[in-house]
Write a structure and sequence with these properties.
The protein contains ten helices and eight strands. With about 300 residues, it is an alpha/beta fold.
Length: about 300
């Protein structure tokens, strides 16, 4: 996975609040088995704190001048993205949103850009106050993606993913898949509280995987309007395998087997490892968001 060394990064699409103090009550998850299940749901991807019973506070963190300056000063070009994790995420966000902006325009629609918020430990959102335990998530209340970069280490050490730069890109692209769903009015279908292998919650998550694959298909050909060249210049078969491995690592069956010792499909919210790989590959192989209709 390689970015154009000379391309400029748009750091305005990332809000860095790492190290900021967040006011309000502490985010909590209920104890016992229910609490464990809620925590695991948060660790899957895409489940916002409002769906986990976390603190309902609407504390909006303010980025400190030092944290903003850090990203702006260190994440300037594609060369920085090729060398540093946080700059790589900035570049992925730029690439993903450039693609969806152009795709919505091609379909006579309008894509509204969504910032990614870097946080550490705890963050206030329009969906409530969340800790790093919920993993990466998209909040439809403020239309932002929230990410503690420490999750990428956990993806490898706790969930058994092979890791790699494109595993990180898959995570980011999946969350922006939820933003696309939000703009198209399909995200709400997952908020009925129903779980199970054939639930709308699973179908929404699998569609977000498919949308991540669609972006990957077009990533090396999507031209940045400011340069006329793609920001992402190289994506190898090994990169795609890392993305597929990450998708499998966060399948409901894999996580339940790892943390509970048994698989209970009636509680699934995101789909099995095989399903997540299948739908990411569906998007990647076709490059067509119309082929991502998991509800059919």
């Amino acid at each position: 996975m390689q970015f154009d060394d000379d391309a400029d990064l748009d750091t305005s699409e990332v809000q860095d609040v790492r190290g900021s103090r967040i006011p309000g009550g502490r985010a909590t998850v209920g104890g016992g088995v229910a609490g464990l299940i809620a925590l695991l749901l948060g660790l899957f991807f895409g489940v916002g704190p409002d769906q986990l019973g976390l603190s309902s506070g609407n504390d909006e963190p303010a980025a400190t001048a030092s944290s903003l300056a850090q990203v702006q000063q260190t994440c300037r070009t594609g060369q920085d993205a090729n060398a540093k994790d946080d700059c790589r995420v900035v570049a992925v966000v730029n690439s993903v949103q450039t693609y969806w902006t152009q795709e919505f325009t091609r379909r006579s629609g309008t894509y509204t850009r969504s910032p990614t918020v870097f946080f550490s430990s705890r963050v206030g959102t329009a969906c409530g106050t969340a800790t790093s335990a919920v993993g990466p998530f998209y909040c439809p209340g403020d239309r932002k993606v929230y990410l503690d970069l420490g999750f990428f280490d956990e993806l490898r050490t706790k969930f058994g993913s092979s890791g790699g730069p494109f595993a990180q890109a898959y995570v980011v692209a999946h969350e922006y898949g939820h933003h696309v769903q939000d703009l198209m009015g399909t995200l709400g279908r997952a908020q009925d509280g129903v779980t199970g292998a054939n639930s709308d919650s699973v179908k929404v998550e699998l569609q977000a995987d498919c949308y991540a694959g669609v972006w990957a298909h077009h990533a090396t050909t999507t031209k940045n309007p400011s340069t006329g060249r793609p920001l992402l210049t190289s994506l190898t078969d090994a990169d795609i395998r890392d993305g597929m491995d990450a998708a499998a690592a966060v399948g409901d069956d894999r996580i339940q087997e790892r943390f509970q010792g048994q698989v209970t499909p009636e509680t699934w919210t995101h789909g099995s490892a095989g399903q997540r790989q299948q739908w990411f590959h569906q998007g990647y192989s076709t490059g067509d968001m119309a082929r991502c209709n998991t509800f059919r």
